[in-house]
Amino acid sequence: MKYRINLRGVMIPNDYKWVYDFLGMESTCPKDVMDILDKTILGDEVEVYINSPGGVIDVGSEIYTALRTTNAEVKIYITGQACSAASIVAMAGYCEMSPTALMMVHCVSTETSGNHSTMEHTAEVLRTADRALCAAYTEKTGMSEAEALTMMEKETWLSADRAKEHNLIDKIMFEEKENHQMVAGPEFRLPDKTEMENIRKILKLDGDENKATVPEMQCKLNLLKLRNIS
User: Global pTM?
Assistant: First the structure.
């Protein structure tokens, strides 16, 4: 069975969900995701559609982990934006990105007050959180921790092309599935595998006694053209 998860709006804790719903504001909490994943069994498919500016990092981590540990096959599609914590969720499985979508990665931020000791402690906590979250990027892309942290520190915005270059996604949506080989003329095409096999069979030489002459082979090739083998 196939299930769909819409990860839209701000990513918030479960306890905040009723407030956002009451105000008519789009949001996603871990329970929204878990309620669907709990229905799945081995062999099911889950499609996750992301359009979120991000939110609480704990929420992003919980949803990321849930998608990584489910028995279902997970496919993720970035349709609008996958920013901040939402970009972490995008690392949880096979991911495609719309050519018009955006991804943003940055360092964790918070608000605090206090003396210099408090500020220094907060800075260290933030650095630890950055290193923890960048593990999702390194796991997905194969880039080093230093590379991932540099990207986060610069608050990097990525188009689908750039995200693909950095291996943050697996594919850009709507790209053609097949790469067509280029040929010299517009009216010429290369024969496919079936046509080549048919040509081999017709021109097959069983022995010296049946060896075809060049004119005979040319006649057979002309016959193939008339038959328009496919």
Answer: 0.75
